[in-house]
Fold this protein.
Amino acid sequence: MTSSSRSARPPLNRRLAEFGTTIFAEMSALAVRTGSINLGQGFPDTDGPEEVREAAVRALRDGRGNQYPPGPGVPELRTAVAAHQERRYGLTYDPDTEVLVTAGATEAIAAALLGLLEPGDEVVALEPYYDSYAACIAMAGGRRVPVTLRPGDGSFRLDLDELRDAVTDRTRLLLINTPHNPTGTVLTREELTAIAELAVERDLLVVTDEVYEHLVFDDAEHLPLATFPGMRERTVTIGSAGKSFSFTGWKVGWVTSTPALVSAVRSAKQFLTYVSSGPFQYAVAEALALPDAYFAAFRADMLAKRDLLAAGLAEAGFEVFRTAGTYFITTDIRPLGESDGFAFCRALPERAGVVAIPNAVFYDHREAGAPFVRFAFCKQTEVLREAAKRLKAAL
Ligand code: PMP
Ligand code: GLN
């Protein structure tokens, strides 16, 4: 092949060409470049519990996990994941055959879709969706079928009839996320019951991203889909130490499901990273066994941050949707006389010294997401106060 014919074809394949650079990389770079407060990418600006960090240091020093850990994850962590699911939800999993450790939830999502989908299979997913879903469905040769959560009564809700109508004979799986990024919606018992009934009736697999399981507020309750009738045997549940313990850089996630489904996910996972995060796996095993008091304090702290930022955003003139879970508040910018979230977020660092994420990036129906903008509140109180002050002064 000559160099001219090589350059005639763009190097990036067609499956990925539509995705570009993730919004998180773009916006975090913008925050650094402009010296802005970064309420875009969802990562805490303080680290998780000291004793968990110390556990990682101990593992490193003791030489645990410095060489390839076992493919499915170290036994200590698989046992701790199973114990956590039982303690919190009454779900029992065999640590040897029903738990898989992954490089964050991101790899769990990728491996689940690569391991479970045939080319052409349809995946019904809640829109707006976390950006890696669309890319991973595409990499697996699947077709995404969005069901849009619509604003009403102060939050974003799922239309169960739309969900039902989205399922066809080609649907292989439902990709669910609760608590939901970016809207902050936590699916209710009624909604989850309906999803479960649909999955059983149409014999669908369900991949459920529950990385924000510990971040639910007020009277919302996190109910794992696997606890609903007929679901344990068809559900792949995904969790993450990044979100539950504020160590997003460690990239430790996990999958729980049946032996057959875990084996399918592992088949793909073994050729993605094979294994990762050796010493951190031991530390996360200790984190999962922290007493309930840790989880209660974590939740209370995030709740206070949510309230602080929500009040600041309202004062600055945004319409603020109710966040029942996650790190995020979704706002509507129309009361500010704006309608294009992309343009708004690109201008915001210069205007106000704050970075946020345009929700439109999480939509196939871009126009449906155009006026919505997401702010992360997993930041220190003084940072949130300063951001609110800047927004109020600038908008
Ligand atoms: N799923 C959702 C809904 C997320 O918000 C994120 C990251 N914030 C992930 C998955 C990825 O998690 P991890 O960092 O563990 O890969
Ligand atoms: N999940 C985080 C968010 O939604 C970001 C993760 C990432 O940067 N890929 O902000």
